[in-house]
Amino acid sequence: MKTALQTFEAGLIGLNEFLDSTENEARLLKLYSERIGNALNSEEQSILASIAAAHVRRKQYIYTVTIVSLYGLLERYIDSIIELHVQMLSNIANTYTGMPRAIVDSHVIRSMELVKALAEDKFRTGALTEAQVIENLHLCLSGASEFRVNGSAFSIHRGNLTLAKIGEFLKGVGIQGALRRVCVTKPMLEYLGGRYPGRDIRSIADQDLPNVFEPINSLVQRRNEVSHGVVNIDELESVSLLKERCNFIDAYVHSLHCVFLQEIARACSLSRKASVSLGRPIAVFDKKVVCFEMSSGEISVGDVLIAETGDEVEVRPVKVLDLATSLLTI
Questions:
Q1: By the 8 A CB rule, do 82 and 42 touch?
Q2: What is the DSSP code (8-state) at residue 95?
Q3: What is the separation of C-alpha 135 from the centre of its chain, rounded to a whole number of angstroms?
Q4: Are residues 7 and 109 in the same domain?
Q5: How far apart are CA 120 and CA 237, in angstroms?
Q6: pLDDT: is 100 or 296 the higher one?
Q7: Is residue 316 located within the same domain as residue 182?
Q8: How many other CB atoms sit within 10 Å of the CB of residue 242?
Q9: Minimum mean pLDDT among 64-68, 152-156, 276-280: which range?
Q10: With 0-12 CB in 10 A as exposed, 13-18 as middle and 19+ as buried, what is 150?
């Protein structure tokens, strides 16, 4: 799952570097023109004038590249994380029927859709073939102890990924209440806190949550317009506004990733293959030191503790940084 986020982050860094460079180029051209414009010969003045005259076309190009690239990064992340999430749940679950009900109930029909898409060459999944999809499905339905769910089947979609369609994707893999959960994760709280200082983000009503995430649908709409060559010059966004779009999508993706990690942590806590129950802690100091009584099993630095907080939407995975036993550091 980490690779999906890293790919998104690398792409967003490149896009922000592009926007920074366009700002610097425009600033440098303006300073250069003001400082030595009168000292240029006629040919140089003509070139400078033609560059300045093309600023509208250049602004349109910057806008187009940013909108298309940003949407592409978001779509690629969603497609990748859905597939990786299902595959990881498949590795964690004790049995096929022990996976989220939403996945089990739709796996057959989604797998058939994947077979059809592969046969028509409308969907590419690397080395996965139609025969392998059928084989994976057979392993699941036959109750085999070693089974493989067709994760790619859950990331097939037609059309653009609007906010509603992303919600359908998430429900399809068992993630409910996604907007609320994304809204109260640390990256989104920090972003919205900066945009709307003083507002209690956690108290936003459920019916108002789609308005908070409106920039996603706006991005999709603008991407469609650009793709069809319909660009209203009056609606072109400045570099600063485009950067703000990038910041929102960045916060959204990192927050959504937190939700996926919570789901994986919850699945691990329920799996005999992936976890050992430690019971309730004896004591907790400064939210950093947790004391357990452990009579069997092993635990090492680097392992992950999964804390159920009592909040039905939140499970907190925390990496073990240090261990001590009988007050002696291991």
A1: no
A2: S
A3: 30
A4: yes
A5: 39
A6: 100
A7: no
A8: 22
A9: 276-280
A10: buried
Residues 164, 132 share a domain: yes
CA 19 from chain centre, in angstroms, equals 21
CA dihedral 103, 7, 266, 308 (to 10 degrees): -150
Instruction: Give me the helix-helix angle, 101-119 and 130-141, nearest 10°.
Output: 160
41 phi-psi bin (left φ>0, alpha ψ -120 to 50, beta other) = beta
Q: Are residues 290 and 181 in the same domain?
A: no
Same domain, yes or no: 86 and 169: yes
Could you report the per-residue pLDDT of 271-330, keeping only the tens digit for each?
665 567 777 788 888 777 888 777 666 777 767 676 666 554 455 656 677 776 765 444
Q: What is the dihedral of CA 289, 292, 294, 299, to 10 degrees?
A: -30
Q: Are residues 71 and 169 in the same domain?
A: yes
CA gap 126, 224 in Å, rounded = 27
272 CB-near residues (< 8 Å, 6+ apart)? 94
Residues 312, 199 share a domain: no
Into how many domains does the chain fold? 2
Distance CA 122, CA 100 (A): 28
Contact (CB, 8 A) for 139 and 148: yes
Parent domain of 164: 2-270
Asked whether residue 276 is domain-assigned, the answer is no
Give the closest residue to 170 by CA, choosing from 263, 74, 268, 92.
Answer: 263
Asked if residue 121 and residue 149 are part of one domain, the reply reads yes
Q: Quick check: 321 and 301 in contact, CB under 8 A?
A: yes
Whether residue 128 is contained in a domain is answered as yes
**Mean pLDDT lowest for which of 22-26, 86-90, 170-174, 292-296?**
292-296
**What angle do the packed helices 42-53 and 2-36 form, to 10 degrees?**
140
